[in-house]
Amino acid sequence: MKARYTRLTAAHLTSASPPGAKAPPLDWSSGSNGPSEAWEAADVETKAIIAHACAAEASFALSEMERLNAEALSALVSRNNVQLKSFSADLVAAAKREAAAVLGELGARSEIARRVHESYVGFRDRTAAWSRISIKGVLDARES
After folding, report:
1. With contact defined as beta carbons under 8 Å apart, do 18 and 49 qualify?
2. How far apart are CA 67 and CA 51, in angstroms?
3. Spans of all domains in the chain
4. What's the pLDDT score for residue 36?
5. CA distances from residue 24 to 15, 36, 46, 105, 118 in whole angstroms, order as listed
6. What was the pLDDT predicted at 34?
7. Cα 113 to Cα 96: distance, rounded to the nearest angstrom
8. How far apart are CA 114 and CA 69, in angstroms?
9. CA-CA distance, 121 to 126, in Å (whole number)?
10. CA gap 63, 56 in Å, rounded
11. Below-50 pLDDT ranges, the chain
12. Measured between alpha carbons, how far is residue 111 from residues 33, 54, 86 in Å?
C-alpha cells in the first residue's frame, strides 16, 4: 500500500483526529503495551503526521540549540570577560577513549542497547569523512 500524504494546516494539528483518520487518535495511556502497540495500530496518515512532526521538532530543536548556545557564548565573552581556551590534544584523546569504553559497556547491557550503540558507531564512522569536509570545511572557511 502506497502512503498518502495530506497537506496539513494548523487546524489539523490541533484537532482530535488527523485528516482522513480511520482510527481514533493515539492514546498512549490506555493501558496498551505502550508506544509500539499504538504506533502499529495507527493508520498510514497518522504515522506520516507523527513522522513529520518529529522531523520538524528535531530540526527546530537543533536550530534553537545553535541560537541559544551562540547567545550564551556571546554573553560569557562580552559581559563576563570569559577567555576561551581549547583542551589539550592529550586530554581530548583520553576523554575519547573513556567515552568509547563507557558507551561500549552501556551497549553490552541489552540487545536494544547493543543495537543502538552499533547504529550510533556505524553512523559516526560513515559520516566522519563527510563531516570533515562539510562542517569543518565551512567553519574553517568562516574563520579565514
Report:
1. yes
2. 24
3. 1-85, 86-144
4. 78
5. 11, 16, 10, 41, 36
6. 62
7. 20
8. 32
9. 8
10. 11
11. 1, 3-6, 9-18, 21
12. 19, 25, 37
Cβ-count burial 61-97 (b if 16+ within 10 Å, e if not): eeeeeeeeeeeeeeeeeeeeeeeeeeeeeeeeeeeee
At 9, give phi and psi (nearest 5°).
Answer: -120, 170
Does residue 35 contact residue 28 with C-beta atoms inside 8 Å? yes
Nearest to 67 by CA among 78, 79, 77, 59: 59
Say how far apart CA 19 and CA 40 lie, in whole Å: 18
What one-letter code names the amino acid at 35?
Answer: P
**27 and 38 in contact (C-beta within 8 Å)?**
yes
pLDDT at 10: 47
pTM of the model: 0.51
Q: For residue 49, give the nearest of 75, 71, 78, 16 by alpha carbon.
A: 16
> 85: which 3 cell numbers?
581556551
Tell me how far apart the alpha carbons of residues 125 and 97 are, in angstroms, rounded to a whole number. Answer: 15
DSSP state letter for 1: -
